[in-house]
Amino acid sequence: FSSNMVYFTDWDEFVRQAERLTAEHPDKVRCSLKYRHVDAKLVIKVTDDVKSLKFRTDQAQDVKKIEKFNSNFMLAVLSASKA
């Protein structure tokens, strides 16, 4: 198990790369959210166990973007698993 982790500072680039990873490995990819109370940061992670993509924010306006991404991610994974 070796992980190639990438932290993104640009939300749009994170979304592009996460969508690409999801399209390549819809059966292996997963998404997780973690809130770090100590520094008030929300971290979203998309991984297929080989490559990990992370985006970290402390901005309230980013929460809506993350919610929308998470919904779209679930739809993409579910529709790929039915195909």
Q: In DSSP terms, counting alpha (H) and pi (I) runs of 4 or more, how many helices?
A: 2
pLDDT below 50 for ≥5 consecutive residues: which ranges? none
Strand content: 25-35%
The end-to-end distance, rounded to whole angstroms, is 28 Å
Q: From N to C, what is the helix and strand string?
A: EHEEEH
Count of strand segments: 4
Largest sheet: 4 strands, mixed
Order of the strands making up the biggest sheet: 1-4-3-2
Mean pLDDT: 90
| Class by alpha and beta content | alpha+beta
Rg, nearest Å: 13 Å
Morphology: globular
Helix content: 40-55%
Describe the structure in your own words.
By secondary structure, the protein is of the alpha+beta class. Helix content is 43%, strand content 31%. The chain contains 2 helices and 4 strands, in the order βαβββα. It has helices at residues 11-24, 61-82, and strands spanning 4-8, 30-36, 41-47, 51-57. The protein has a 4-stranded mixed sheet, covered by helices on one side. A hairpin with a 3-residue loop joins β3 (41-47) and β4. The radius of gyration is 13 Å and the shape is globular.
What are its keywords?
single chain, 83 residues, 4-stranded mixed sheet, 4 strands, 43% helix, globular
Task: Please write out the topology.
Layout (H helix, E strand, L loop, with lengths): L3 E5 L2 H14 L5 E7 L4 E7 L3 E7 L3 H22 L1
Parallel strand pairs: 1-4
Antiparallel strand pairs: 2-3, 3-4
